[in-house]
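Shipment paperwork, digital attachment
Item: protein structure file
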Amino acid sequence: MASAGAARGRGARAGAGAGTGGVPCAPSPAGAALLARVAPLDRGLAARPADAAAVDAAAARLEGEGPAPTLGGGGMAALAGRWQLVYSSQLLLPPAALSPVKLGQVFQDIWERDTTGWRCDNEVTLATGLLPALAATVTLEHALRCEEPASFEIEFDRARLGGPEAREGADGANGLVPALPAGFGPPQARSARFDNTYCGGGLRVTRGDRGELRVYVRPDGVS
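Attachment content:
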């Protein structure tokens, strides 16, 4: 697989911040249309099949507009950092919608560890329906391998409690993994692959090897 070393050392180590440029986000018209489509859908939990088809079509228009992201020439720096999930087609599945566990915010951190390379952390907040105050943040840690032009392959390492501030903490979250909605637990084969099909204006679109469409935004509004 192609190396992402060209992007190393360019501010991507934080993993809990925004992109490296610090420029206010300004989605293109097609990007704004996609965000408007997903806004009322509660990240996909409230989506019907017709909604999913409309989101997919809006994402395809944005992908067609381009430019497509690349990993070389510093492109990895645009993909690195903290992203907030605003839509996943996986959440249309009944087990996710009907689960007694409420899905809170979902973030993805793409960051570089000095000695072991790139990492991908999926951070999920869970709360029970009856006791919403009893919330827990579970982070699924993955080794990240990059392949040109803009594909990621992740391999699950462990589950732990807490967000980026607890990266050195103990596992401690394995018992909560079965409560994660479909598509948010460890990959069944411990590894998964997804393509970054669009990245610009603080908006990122990915398509996974199991047919899942995800839409992310920068949580603090800069890219």
